[in-house]
Amino acid sequence: MAELAGAAAGPTGAGVHLLPRIAWRNLWRNRRRTWLTTASIAFAIALIVFFMSLQSGSYEDMIDLGTSLITGHAQIQHPKTLDDPDIDHRLSARAQLLARLDSVPGVTAAPRLVVFALASVDERSLGAQIMGIDPKREQILSVLPERLHAGRYLAAPGEAVVGQRLADNLGAILGAELVILGTGADGSVAALVVEIVGLLRSGITELDRGLVQLHIEDVESEFSLTDAATHIALKGESPPNLAALTTQVAPLLSEDQVLRDWPQLMPDLFQGIEIDRISGRVMYVIILAMVAFSVLNTFVLLLFERRREFGVLLALGMKPGRIILMVHLEALALWILGAGIGLIVALAVIALVGTTGISLGEEMQEMAEQMYMPSHMYPGIDLLTLTFAPVVMFFATQLAAAVGSLRLLRLRPVDAMRRS
Fold it and tell me: pLDDT tens digits, residue range 305-326?
C-alpha cells in the first residue's frame, strides 16, 4: 500500500515508474485467478499457433504437389491458350525461347506439345491427351517420372508412357504397340506407332485415365509442329516466389507470349486454399473472442473487488488515468505470461509433430491425392503463424481492461470506500 501511496502522491515520472512493479504484484494477490486467466490465454494461443502451422505446412505441400505433377510454378503460353487451348494457339521458335530461359539462374524450363488424338491397342481405341515432352527436362521439373507403376520412363523417340487406367481400359501391357491417330496442325493425318515402356499412376484420375507422354520429337514431326510448343512449364524455388519468377522471366517474352502463374493455371486449388484459410481465420477469431470474454470477466470482478482500494488511491490524489494505466499494465503482464507459455508449448508440439507428421490414414489417402494433399501433414512456421494469435490476444486483453476500467472514470472516493 505504501508503494501505491507513493505512486499516487509522488512526482509524475516517479509515480509512473512504480506502476509496473505495482501492477505485477497486484496480479499475485489472487494467484488462482491469475493462473486460470493465464492458462486460458496460453491454451488459445498454443492451439491456434499449432493449427495455423498445420494449415501453412499443408498449403505448401499442396502447392508443391499440385505444381510438380504437370503444371509447374508458372507457364509461358500464347495469350489465347487459357480460354481456347487450340493447337493453333501455340508458341513458335521453341529452341530460341528455351535458350533464353536457360540463361536465367534457378529456373527450370520444360517444353510441352499437347494434342488430342485417338490411342489404340489392337481393336480398342480411346481418346487421349498426347503430351510431347523432353524427357531430361521433364525429370527435373516434374515428379511424374517418379510415379511409374511399372516399366521405365521415356528415353528416346518411339516410346510412350501411358496412364495406368488408360492402359487398363485399352488392355495394354508393357511392350505393346500403341497407335496414335490424329490431325496435324496443317490438316494432314497424323499417325505413329510407339512402344509402351512405362505405366503411370499419378493418383490424379484425369491423368491416369487420359495421359500419354511421347518424346517431343515424335509429336512435332507427326503433327507438323516443328520447333513449336503449346506451353513451356517453369519451375523456380520452392515454395514458389512468383514475384521473383515473374521479374526474371517476363522481360524475355515477346508480345505473343504471356507468363501465367499457378493460381491462374490451377484456380480450383488456389480458391480452395483461400477458402480454407479464411474459414480458419474466422474460427480462430471466435476462439480468441471467447477467451477475451473470460479475460473481461476477470477484470470486471477484479475492479469490483478492489473498489475500496481504488477509492483510497483517488482520495490520496492519484488521478483516474494512472489507475487505468495500472490496470492496463496488469493486462499486459497477463498477456506476456499467457503468450509466452502458449508459444513455448506450441513450438514444442510443432517440433515433436514435425519429425513424424500427422498421417491422414489409408482410407483418406486416395481422396487426399485428388485434392493435391500429401499422405502426412507437417507443420510449417512463418511470421504470420507465430504472431496472429498473440497480436489479436494482446488487443483483446487491452480492450477487456479498458472496458472493465471505464467505471473508474465515474468512481467517487467517498462512495467507493463507504460501499466496500
Answer: 776 776 677 677 777 778 778 8
